[in-house]
Design goal:
The complex is a heterodimer of chains A (161) and B (271). Chain A has two domains: 4-79, Roll (Ubiquitin-like (UB roll)); 88-160, DNA polymerase, domain 1, CATH 1.10.150. In chain A, 35% of the residues lie in helices and 16% in strands. Chain A has five helices and five strands. Chain A has a five-stranded mixed sheet with strand order 2-1-5-3-4, sandwiched between helices. In chain B, helix 9 packs antiparallel against helix 10 (226-234). Chain B has eleven helices and 14 strands. Chain B has three domains: 4-49, no CATH class; 58-159, 2-Layer Sandwich (Uridine Diphospho-n-acetylenolpyruvylglucosamine Reductase, domain 3); 166-265, Enolase-like, domain 1. In chain B, the strands form four sheets. In chain B, strands 4-5-8-6-7 form a five-stranded antiparallel sheet. A four-stranded antiparallel sheet of chain B has the order 9-10-13-14, sandwiched between helices. Classes of the chains: A alpha+beta (161), B alpha+beta (271). Chain A binds chain B through residues 1, 4, 20-22, 24, 43-45, 48, 51, 57-60, 62-65, 67-68, 111, 114-115, 128-134, and chain B through 1-5, 27, 29-31, 34-35, 37-39, 47, 49, 51, 90, 93-97, 99-100, 176-177.
Chain lengths: 161, 271
């Protein structure tokens, strides 16, 4: 089957690629665009490791054919930092030991970003809900929840400064 | 394996494309079909996109609600007129899944999934299906009981239940959004202190979402008192054939169902 063109924006830059028909976005990000921060864990929508944002909405890239994002704007973990400066969420994960093996971290941080972009002052329960589609088998979740709460506080301070 | 992705201009064209092919399927959110494509559950060669077909509208006409089949769980949870369904929509997956998973797709979710269909079954929903030639409507009971006879699910329609009459509970092991050990939805309208037109539905208690007709019979025309509860619980598991999966064994599901039904009917554990 002939390859098909897809054109979309990734982390603010236009991407134009010929892909296998039906290729999932996660594979295109990793194999074509070298954005390997997005992980592929289960390919079933269960683990959340492939989580990205499409037009501001949290989406599982392993279940999204790349042809479906034609003309849309995708944000991956590589687009969370600004000008080489870690986002407060990333910083909080590093300082709070919220990452161990690291496999879930990209998806966790993107999920946390979607939460904090929409809700700058979430409750603990809201943080738990926000990452409830992301599986971590190392940390026991507590350091992740704490990191997101502390990043939320940090972001609020930065915004009010 | 390469997949052909087809974009169409109408639901009718989608239905015709799928009818003409043996291995084409309609892609809504992707949480079922893309998963199957990734894992090779059955051969999928062609996906017909639901994008841009206007299938995600929610319309209210008097006390009748029509939900477009491609409306997502996030959309349902955010819809003020459907506030009573918010706990159901929010019980399904994490935020990314809820942004993708659709009401129509939930009718096709396999055991033990499909909790939204359980709620729709209790609400006595009708399914509007469009095929290459015509549009037809069927009760959700019949739709779930038989293999779909082709066509595209366009919308689900039901009457708003009286205030406070809708109840739902979902039992999970992985909190807050695991797959169901079981789920129960009920619409219990009361007239003069007595239940009339009760509808009770279970998820994960048989292969597909099912009505608990014996329970409905035990409640009908009676006050929701201790005696009625006892009568209903005696027949709680009538017709149930749950499966054993990583969530629970069939024995466990049969054993705990009456406990959760009692809580639901007595007003405890409602969310």
């Amino acid at each position: 089957m002939a390859r098909v063109p897809v054109v979309f924006t990734v982390n603010g830059t236009e991407a134009a690629e010929f892909v296998e028909p039906g290729a999932m976005l996660s594979d295109v990000l990793r194999d074509k665009l070298d954005l390997t921060g997005t992980r592929v864990g289960c390919s079933q929508g269960t683990c959340g490791a492939c989580t990205v944002m499409i037009d501001g909405e949290l989406i599982l890239s392993c279940l999204t054919p790349a042809q479906r994002v034609n003309g849309k704007s995708v944000v991956t973990i590589e687009g969370v930092a600004t000008n080489g400066e870690l986002d407060p969420i990333q910083q909080a994960f590093a300082t709070g030991f919220a990452t161990q093996c690291g496999f879930c971290t990209s998806g966790m941080i993107v999920a946390a970003k979607a939460l904090l972009d929409a809700n700058p002052d979430p409750s603990r329960d809201e943080v738990v809900d926000a990452i409830s589609g992301n599986i971590c088998r190392c940390t026991g979740y507590e350091p992740i929840i704490n990191a997101i709460l502390s990043a939320a506080a940090e972001r609020r301070v930065a915004k009010s400064a | 394996m390469a997949l052909d992705i087809v974009k169409v201009d109408s639901v009718r064209e989608a239905a015709a494309t799928i009818a003409a092919s043996g291995d084409a399927y309609f892609l809504a959110g992707g949480t079922i079909l893309a998963r199957v494509a990734n894992t090779g559950g059955f051969p999928v060669r062609t996906m017909v996109l639901s994008d841009g077909l206007g299938l995600d509208a929610i319309a209210v006409d008097g006390d009748t609600i029509e939900i477009g089949a491609a409306a997502t769980m996030t959309r349902i949870a955010a819809e003020p007129r459907l506030a009573f369904l918010r706990p159901v929509a929010e019980s399904i997956g994490g935020p990314a899944i809820r942004n993708m998973a659709t009401v129509g797709g939930n009718l096709f979710a396999r055991y033990p999934y499909g909790d939204f269909a359980v709620a729709l079954l209790a609400l006595d929903a009708e399914v509007t299906i469009e095929d290459a030639e015509k549009t037809r409507t069927t009760g959700l009971d019949d739709f779930l009981a038989s293999a779909p006879a082709g066509g595209i699910v366009r919308a689900l329609r039901f009457k708003l239940p009286p205030d406070g009459a809708f109840r739902f509970t979902k039992v999970v092991r992985k909190h807050p959004h695991g797959a169901s050990v079981l789920s129960i939805a009920a619409v219990l309208p009361e007239t003069g202190g007595k239940v009339s037109n009760a509808r009770v539905a279970y998820g994960a208690m048989s292969e597909r979402p099912m009505r608990a007709k014996a329970v409905e019979g035990a409640l009908e025309g009676r006050a929701l008192d201790a005696q009625t509860l006892e009568n209903a619980l005696k027949v709680a598991t009538d017709g149930c054939q749950p499966q054993t999966d990583p969530q629970a064994t069939d024995w466990y599901r049969m054993t705990v169902l009456p406990v959760h039904l009692k809580r639901l009917l007595s007003g405890e554990g409602r969310f």
